[in-house]
Design a protein that fits this description.
Elements lengths: L8 H19 L3 H6 L10 H9 L7 H22 L1 H22 L9 H13 L9 H20 L6 H22 L1
Helix pairs in contact: 1-4, 3-5, 4-5, 4-6, 5-8, 6-7, 6-8, 7-8
């Protein structure tokens, strides 16, 4: 019998923390999700404000929201963690969470943000850069960026829902910037 391998500690721990946040949110009827796992305008004197700048990526509105993000995270994340290393990937996740959390706080005072979509789109853009050789930009990056940005801009302009499309774009931009940095670092 083969043993299971904890092959991608950052991605698997992110998954487990997000699952725990979902369970806690369900058990408390959303109270913990609002307190720790959603970022929104709150007083800077509230210490939880700073937790939410980063913790919002672990929170999800419901099981469908969680599953949509986690399936992509679990498919795209492990090969990237293997390629770039756990520490480097963790830096990218924390950086993306912090940037999107602060931007949400500053730019959208009347709305809350939660979910790992920005992280997932960061990983997608990072993945499309993983084939970069000799400083040349992969065509896959250009195609993914065009399709991805086109879909998000379309949604911003013509779709009215509770999806934070701008934060998806921020996540994608972070993934692209992080990908160029990581590629330079690993050369």
């Amino acid at each position: 019998m083969k043993k299971l391998q904890y092959n991608s500690p950052v991605i698997l721990n992110f998954f487990l923390l997000s699952f725990a946040a979902l369970i806690l949110g369900e058990m408390t009827k959303g109270w913990v999700t609002q307190l720790l796992f959603s970022v929104y305008r709150a007083p800077l004197t509230d210490p939880f404000t700073y937790v939410r700048f980063f913790g919002h990526v672990l929170g999800h509105a419901n099981l469908d929201h969680f599953m949509g993000n986690m399936l992509l995270l679990l498919v795209v994340g492990p090969p990237l963690e293997e390629k770039y290393g756990s520490r480097t990937l963790l830096v990218g996740i924390v950086m993306t969470a912090g940037i999107s959390g602060v931007l949400q706080f500053v730019c959208f005072p009347g709305a809350a943000l939660l979910g790992a979509s920005g992280i997932v789109f960061m990983l997608i853009m990072l993945s499309s850069l993983s084939g970069m050789r000799n400083g040349r930009i992969p065509l896959t990056l250009v195609l993914v960026a065009l399709l991805y940005l086109g879909q998000e801009v379309w949604s911003i302009l013509f779709v009215r829902d509770n999806v934070a499309n701008l934060m998806h774009i921020i996540g994608g931009a972070c993934g692209t910037a992080f990908g160029f940095w990581a590629a330079k670092k690993h050369r």
